[in-house]
Specification:
223 residues; alpha/beta; Rossmann fold; 7-stranded mixed β-sheet; 8 helices; 26% strand; globular; methyltransferase
Length: 223
């Protein structure tokens, strides 16, 4: 099913890279014209993430986080830097990472690495991260590449570390988007891919108060 929708993998990835190179490096650009939802998104993510952070048995540390598909650093600035000592960013578009250095302002000094790389090729450093945050980007990976990336992320976690996937969810099946060269998967498909990667879902929530005309957005905590 997915192979038929995506077609040639090389074209699937190169079309997405070209799309993002034409997008302005702004919050509105990162959110496809829905910059107005940024506060709601960040508030929901903060409440979700804070449930797992802290000290003590089973709690996730606050040393270092990785922002995947980071763009100009919207999530790094508003969610991760307030909660973690240091943050790394990875994105396929160099212009976005260049913009992040100024967008993050004074707090940019706590960003240790800006990796320019597609997630299908990215290798997180083993046992470096307390949290790996993956938002609005898994649709740019094929099923197999997503599974492989999640496996690599698992090896990049510190003890009690957490992978968080926050993304659009289709009502049924897999919906292709030819404009940005991505797919939107339903929850059943996403759950199967998470399982293939050897990860367990320890918490799952639907983001509330988003506009009705956009896809539902779900947040999954994995380890």
């Amino acid at each position: 099913m997915e192979d038929r929708l995506i077609g040639d993998q090389t074209t699937f990835y190169s079309k997405a890279e070209h799309y993002w190179k034409e997008v302005p490096p702004t919050v509105d650009g990162m959110l496809g014209g829905y910059g107005s939802i940024s506060n709601i998104d960040i508030n929901g993510s903060t409440k979700f993430l804070q449930k797992f952070l802290g000290e003590g048995q089973g709690k996730t540390g606050t040393g270092c986080a990785l922002d995947c598909g980071a763009g100009i650093g919207r999530i790094t600035k508003r969610l991760l830097l307030p909660l973690f000592r240091t943050v790394d960013l990875v994105d396929v578009t160099q212009e976005f990472l260049d913009k992040a250095r100024s967008y993050l302002g004074e707090e940019a000094k706590r960003v240790e690495n800006y990796f320019c790389c597609g997630l299908q090729d990215f290798q997180p450093q083993p046992e470096r991260y307390d949290v790996i945050w993956i938002q609005w980007v898994i649709g740019h990976l094929t099923d197999d590449h997503l599974v492989e990336f999640l496996r690599r992320c698992r090896s990049g976690l510190r003890p009690n570390g957490l992978i968080v996937v926050k993304d659009n969810v289709a009502f049924e099946g897999i919906i292709p988007d030819d404009v940005d060269s991505s797919v939107c998967r339903d929850l059943n498909v996403l759950h199967r891919l998470v399982s293939r990667a050897g990860l367990n879902i320890i918490c799952e929530e639907q983001q509330q108060n988003f506009p009705e005309e956009i896809y539902q957005v779900h947040t999954l905590a994995l380890r």
